[in-house]
Automatic annotation (TrEMBL):
EC id: 1.1.1.157
Any one Pfam family match given in the protein's UniProt record, by short name: 3HCDH_N
Alphabetized NCBIfam families for the sequence: PRK05808.1
PROSITE patterns the UniProt entry points to: 3HCDH (PS00067)
The keyword DNA-binding belongs to this UniProt entry's keyword annotation: no
Lineage: Bacteria, Bacillati, Bacillota, Bacilli, Bacillales
Site (Important for catalytic activity): H140
Keywords in alphabetical order: NAD, Oxidoreductase
Molecular function terms from GO: 3-hydroxybutyryl-CoA dehydrogenase activity; NAD+ binding
Biological processes, Gene Ontology terms: fatty acid metabolic process
Gene3D superfamilies: N-(1-d-carboxylethyl)-l-norvaline Dehydrogenase, domain 2 (1.10.1040.10), NAD(P)-binding Rossmann-like Domain (3.40.50.720)
Name of the protein in its database record: 3-hydroxybutyryl-CoA dehydrogenase
Length: 283
């Protein structure tokens, strides 16, 4: 059965994109964030994205209003009880996510599916703090969500086939290609991507080349659409570091050791585009 009502938790860059594609696909969306300022910025972003599609002639003002009317902002987690699915897109931190899933488990009705957009954390460990491990699943979108067509779908140890099938169907309805991936740190995407980004940071740290030179090599030499350090700034350096820490901790293998320069930037508050400075400066 098709999922019609979704709560998205988190109004950062991933939450914004997920809300956009869900509303554009005709879903009713409740949108929650602990920060009302982030929710305000999120809805302004959605308005701007839809306005651009009107300017391009993809839709008209009535379509835009209809899509916006499907999105309701809320400060209350309680409203998750009225949704068939919750998609969590908050910080990449196990204890923060587990605390949220504990609360969600209490407020949601029995059949509600709880999905996490985690980049790298074990789904089974998030599910274990709930009384509904059968209804917890990983639904990993890529950034920027409206553009990137992949969704990694990750079952926890107890996730049922019915729940898996519902998330695969929803991914298709959102215009994405779902790919099943097993529950190991970083799944497939970040197990492969993030060590490359980390190596790019080491290359700068060791003085082999500047950030601009590293990015130019990878764009012109390997046809990557963005250089690894531009991409790190897009993802968020805090998220990149969290993922490297999770890979390092999860596999206990020194090949995943986060570069000290990455940690230094995060400690200094250089988080990439979202803070205005990372490997590059944004105005
Ligand atoms: N939100 C919505 N749409 C966006 C966007 C954004 N943030 N950024 C770009 N777009 C859209 C533009 O509107 C444009 O659409 P139209 O063609 O309809 O006009 C289209 O994307 C192309 O944009 P641009 O021409 O401005 O720029 P580009 O051709 O350089 O593409 C890009 C931008 C799609 C971001 C491209 O550079 C790219 O693919 N970069 C790599 C992205 C990537 O690797 N993402 C994965 C990150 S890892 C991850 O997500 C997993 C994780 O857990 C960390
Ligand atoms: P972000 O820092 O841009 O936004 C996180 C948002 O969550 C903020 O608005 C914050 O106020 C909110 N938040 C934090 N704790 C909360 C709570 N307890 N309840 C409600 N809201 C809360 O982060 P992001 O880049 O959107 O990443 C979100 C998740 O998606 C992370 O797990 C990340 O690993 C994953 N992810 C990120 C990317 C990426 O490229 N950035 C790609 C795929 C997946």
């Amino acid at each position: 059965m098709s999922i019609g009502t979704i709560m998205v938790i988190g109004a950062g860059q991933m939450g914004r994109g997920i809300v956009q594609v869900a509303a554009e696909a005709g879903k009713q969306v409740r949108w929650m964030d602990i920060s009302s300022a982030m929710l305000g910025k999120g809805i302004a972003y959605l308005d701007q994205q839809l306005e651009r599609s009107v300017a391009k002639g993809i839709r008209n003002q009535d379509d835009k209003s209809a899509i916006l009317s499907q999105v309701q902002l809320t400060a209350s987690l309680q409203e998750a009880s009225e949704c068939e699915l919750v998609i969590e897109a908050i910080a990449e931190n196990m204890s923060v996510k587990q605390a949220l899933f504990r609360e969600l488990d209490e407020v949601c009705t029995e059949g509600t599916i709880l999905a996490t957009n985690t980049s790298s954390l074990p789904i089974t460990e998030i599910a274990a703090v709930t009384s509904r491990a059968s209804h917890v699943i990983g639904m990993h979108f890529m950034n920027p969500v409206p553009v990137m067509r992949l969704v990694e779908v990750i079952r926890g140890l107890e996730t049922t086939q019915t729940v898996y099938d519902s998330i695969v169907q929803l991914s298709l309805e959102l215009g994405k290609t779902p790919v099943e991936v097993q529950d190991f740190p970083g799944f497939v995407s970040n197990r492969i991507l993030m060590p490359m980004i980390n190596e790019a940071v080491f290359t700068v740290y060791e003085g082999v080349a500047t950030a601009e030179a590293v990015d130019t090599v990878m764009k012109l030499g390997m046809r990557h659409p963005m250089g690894p350090l531009e991409l790190a700034d897009l993802i968020g350096l805090d998220t990149c570091l969290a993922i490297m820490d999770i890979l390092y901790e999860g596999f206990k293998d020194s090949k995943y050791r986060p570069c000290p320069l990455l940690r230094k930037y995060v400690k200094a508050g250089r988080l990439g585009r979202k803070s205005g400075q990372g490997f590059y400066t944004y105005t």
